[in-house]
Every structure is written in C-alpha cells, then in structure tokens.
Amino acid sequence: MEEEELQCPNSSSEKRYFPESLDSSDGDEEGILACEDLELNPFDGLPYSSRYYKLLREREDLPIWKEKYAFMENLLQNQIVIISGEAKCGKSSQVPQWCAEYCLSIHYQHGGVVCTQVHKQTAVQLALRVADEMDVNIGHEVGYVIPFENCCSSETILRYCTDDMLQREMMSNPFLGSYGVIILDDIHERSIATDVLLGLLKDVLLARPELKLIINSSPHLISKLSSYYGNVPLIEVKNKHPVDVVYLSGAQKESFESILRLIFEIHHSGEKGDIVVFLACEQDIEKAYEIVCQEGSNLNPDLGELVVVPLYPKEKCALFKPPEEMEKRCQVYQRRVVLTASSGESLIWSNTVKFVIDVGVERRKVYNPRIRANSLVTQPISQSQAETRKQILASSSSGKLFCLYSEEFASKDMRPFKPAEMQEANLTSMVLFMKRIDIAGLGHCDFMNRPAPESLMQALEDLDYLAALDNDGNLSEFGIIMSEFPLDPQLSKSILASCEFDCVDEMLTVAAMVTAPSCFSHLPHGAEEAALTCWKTFLHPEGDHFTLINIYKAYQDATLNSTSEHCVEKWCHDYFLNCPALRMADVIRAELLEIIRRIELPYAEPAFGSKENTVNIKKALLSGYFMQIARDVDGSGNYLMLTHKQVAQLHPLSTYSIAKKMPEWVLFHKFSISENNYIRVTSEISPELFMQLVPQYYFSNLPPSENKDILQQIMDHLSTISTMKKEQKMCEKCPETTEQRCTIQ
C-alpha cells in the first residue's frame, strides 16, 4: 500500500492512505474506472475514505445537524448569524465545515474560514477532529494557529486559532481580507480578546459587506448579543438528553469531605463512567489529587482502577476520549477522576463522563489598578457557568450532576453571567493593541461591556511610564516596536532595553521562561526534599531570573547530549522539571529571536556569567519592571511594595528562600494578594541602580512612604556626587578660576 504523509511542526501527524486499486500509474484501466465510481472530496479532489463515512454518521447524530439547512439559508442571505447552543451540541466542529462548503461554492473569492477559540488546546483538538471529519490533511486544507505555533499553509481554507492570535493578525491585516467567514466561538467565556474582536468587527463588517460573521454562544448570552448587534438571525440548538441534578445543600461547608465521599460512593456503586470534579482553585486540585490517589490505592481491585487526572488551569491540558485501541488493550476497567477548576468546562470533551461534582465556588483573579496587583477572590460561580458544567453530561443518557450547594444558593447568591474579563483584568496589553490598531483607523471600539475608567487610566499611565506613548498620547516608535512582541508590555520593554545593554540573548531566555508554564514539576507527596536537592544545582546567587537561565541552559545541554527525546524526558524527570514547559520555552524563545531579527534589532553575543553581564541583565529588567520593586523592612523577609502598602513574602521555591538569604531590595515578576501574598520570580537589585533607571516622573508620583524617603536620600546623594564630578571636570579645565573660587569660600 502506498502512503502519503504530511507532518505539521510540533503537532500530531495525520495520514491519508491511497489504496493500491486507485494507483493508476501503471495504466490499469480497472483502477481508473474504480476511481470514477467513488465520490471525490471537493476540498482535495481525492476519493473519500471509509472513515469519512463512519464519521459522517456520527456527525449526523449531533443536535446541530438538524439545523444545517436553516443555517446555510441564513448564511447566504445575511452578514451576521448567531447560533445558540449548549456545550457538546456540535456547533464548534460542524459550523466551520459548513462555512468552508459555502466558501468553496463561491470559489473562495472573498477568502477562507477562521474560527476562534479561547483555549489553545481546544483550537488544536478541534482542528485535528475537523480535518479527520473532512477527510483532509492537518496543516493543508485544515490548520490551526495558537501562540508560538502555526500549523497552516497557503492551501489552508479552514483554520482554528485562539482569539488573541486573530487579534494580533489585525495589526498587519486590519480588515482581515484573507477571510470570507469569521466565526467567533466560546463568546460566553468573555475573554478580553473576544470582546475586542466583537467590537472591532462591527467596523470591519461595514467596510467589507461581503464578509460573514458567525457568533457561537451558549443560550444565556443571546439576549445581550442580539441587542449588541441588532436584529440578526438566531439559530437555536437543543440538546437531546436531560441531566439528573442532585442538590446537596449541607455539603458546601465540608465540601472536601463531601467530594471524597461522593467519588468513592460512585466507584463502589459499580456504575460505569468517568467523574469530573470542579474545585475552587489549583491548591484544592493538588490536595484532592493527593488524597484520592492515596485512598484509591486501598480500594478493591475488582471494582476497577481509579485513575486521577489533574487539569491545572495554568497548564491548560484537555481531557478527550481515549483512543479505541487503548480501550481494547486495557484488560482492567479504568475510571478516570478528573480534577479541574474554573474555565475547565470547555476542556472536557470526553463522552465517557457520566458524573460531575460541582462545589459552586471559584477563585478568581481580580485586578486592582490602584495597587497594580491581582487579588485572588473566592466567590460563587455564575448561573451560566453552573449550566455549562451541567451540559458536559448532555450527550450522556444517564448523566448525574451533584451540586454541593442548595437551589436557593444558586438562585440568590450566583450572578446570572460570568463577569467579562475586561472588567476584572489588567488592560495594559489591550490598550497597547488598541493604540496600534488606531494607526489603521479602528481605534474606537464599541465594547459590549465598557472597561472601568480607572483601569483604562492606569493602563495609559503605565504605557506612558514605559515610553510607549508620545506627547500626544499616540504610540511612539518605541511603542510600535513593543507591540510587535506577543508579550506583556513590561517584558517587551525589558527586551528592547536589553538591546541597549548588550544582553539580548539572556533576556530572551528570561522572557521565554517566565512566559511558558512553570518549569518546576508538581511534586508528589514525600518528594519535596529530593526535588530541592536537585533544584539547588541550578540556583544562581543573583536571583530567580538568573536561575531560570541556568535551568534553560542545562536543558539545552541535555537536549544536545541526548540521543533521543526519551533521554531528555528522563533528564527532566530526574531533576523534577516540567519537560513540556521547557519545550514550550524553547519554542517561545525561537519566535522572539525571529522577531528581533525581523525588525533588525541589535543582538550581542551571549556573555552570561560575567559581572558586567549580570549588571546589564538587571538594568534591562529594571527598565521594564521598575513598577515592581519591594524592600525587606525588618530583615526577616517581609517585603513592602514600593507602590503601595502591601506586605509580601518570597515564594518558598525562590532562590533566596532555598538559600535562606533575604536581600533588602528585590525586583519581582508576579504578585497576587491572597492568603500567602507571595512575590514570585525575584532578583536582588541595588537602590542606586534603580534610581539611575527609573523615570523621574514615575518616582515623583509614588505615594509617600519610608521606602520612597530612603530612595530620595540615595537620589540626593547620587545628585551630589554627580555635581561634584562636574565641578571636578570644570576644575581640570579652568584651574585659575577654581583656585580663586576656593579662596573666596
């Protein structure tokens, strides 16, 4: 059998097989006749495989399929169509395929199809699934674009991408001229990028009457969308199966014990099906994982194996149906217990889920512009989130949802909608993007929910401090270059400053490592001491940023010296490091380096380890993060922020915590107000260096504090020294004048 295969970088390969009977290269007439009898795929001109027809039968069973004719009619006659459907109704996989059929019918004269997703792993898995259903190759006719990974080609007619990537595409292609149909999916997630796209596309649609916009949302947001876009066609999709909901009103006070009891009761009942547990935060996931693993090992093996799967929000893994071959090979029944937190609803795609346990609360990050920090707030989830969690079971004929709260709590304490991220997040990156788009005349955006004026003012103020704005409030040349990097503006500024201080190579490594997920593995119980011993080999006395460089360099050395990928994974495992996170850091760094070369910024040879290079790295970091400085006020590790009166501690995994050395002044990368108030990724800085690099108008705007007084004294001292040096130079030039002045004094 002949085989053709296309592999997309950093993704799973999809294969197309061509039966020998269809190979007509030897002039066999029977092969040609057989080919003529088969139905050809209009997207690639090849005969459909048997798998296509098998998947087609599955597609026809989806709730959305009944609406195909109505959708195609509305698509032909209208510019905007809204689709209302619950989770797992099929709208994310089928509607883009129908839009591709529409574009094919008009010969792609207006472009192809793009479908946005909030989560990157959802975009990848949808692209793989849809390529399979359309019987085409991933990376050719169907592809995906996510941060730091592009699996598309010039032949791609349907691409899935994250909403932030489509937003970034507008910087170079404001009217999105390469697309004839744009599908905004997961609108109910209310991410900043999706809300920005909703507003900007209003203007794009006016400029391009031929462009079609499809909006996929869960039912609760439909009335708001209809009033936002006016009187547009609405297609409603109903799911098949009702879900049995059990409210456990007294369980919320002792939710952890209730969760564990429910898990083991379900397992002992013998009913087949996976369990999904929605917890409040990552710490709860770790705690539950440890307990369920420990207790599960003592269960009767006749009941089957209990496999615990933690889905950490930062890592954004996804749970999909296991391959049929694995299910066949597995002799013992396995029940998966999936532990996840908020925003995990869209990550659960497996039809094997039969039970959902929902605690009804979540820990959210709410940004406070006054102190430039996130607060971690535990609060009830919204009614719309509760409904989405319920719909995970909608494709199951016998699903059961256990709510660890009362119906009264759901109706009175839960808000109707999930808050828009734009109203709770740091808007500096968004404002930088909007300023960049304003160059193309699309800067006035009609948001569905207006961001808080205080947050907008703080974002503008920060961009001004970072020299991203000119005197008229428009983007400076510096700001335009900063917007080219898919990073936080402070990190972009540090990279640009590193060009001046000859430490670009090192700063790119730092940027990649802090942008990727944490390089430290989640530790199993009892492994803490062994892990710390391993991690100590990477510690750098100058701080965490330098330790991250050491870890990355060690990973690079391990990769170069290894004969296979398995050897690298073993090295990471032995040192308790997260191999996928380090791979991602490698990919991120390569893209950042490509941007540096594309815009022709200076790139000095690496000099990591020299004293001058260490100072230069700190200068580059301070150029971007001068707003994130803290001082140890009592010598015992209580750090007071320079910008406000919050006190924080170093994270336990910090270089200084492990080495038990507390520097007086530190620069930090992250800080959230929570029970622990940890500052993360810290490096020691000298106040003298800070005063040399901080913008003076920023320093003068700082609130009065002991820290500011100390820095003011240092600045006065530096100013005195500077004046004396100037006078010394004048003395050297005019000795007679100096002598007379000294005599008079």
Nutshell version of this structure?
The protein is an alpha/beta fold. Helices cover 44% and strands 17% of the residues.
Q: What is the 3D form?
A: globular
Structural class: alpha/beta
As a percent range, the share of helical residues equals 40-55%
Distance between the termini: 101 Å
Largest sheet: 8 strands, mixed
Radius of gyration: 29 Å
Strand content: 15-25%
**Mean pLDDT, nearest integer?**
85
> Unreliable segments (pLDDT under 50, ≥5 consecutive)?
1-7, 9-36, 322-330, 737-745
Strand order of the largest sheet: 6-5-7-4-8-9-3-10
Count of DSSP strands: 23
The number of helices is 28
Please provide a written account of the structure.
This protein has 745 residues and is of the alpha/beta class. Helices cover 44% and strands 17% of the residues. The chain has 28 helices and 23 strands. An eight-stranded mixed beta sheet has the order 6-5-7-4-8-9-3-10, sandwiched between helices. Mean pLDDT is 85; it is low at 1-7, 9-36, 322-330 and 737-745.
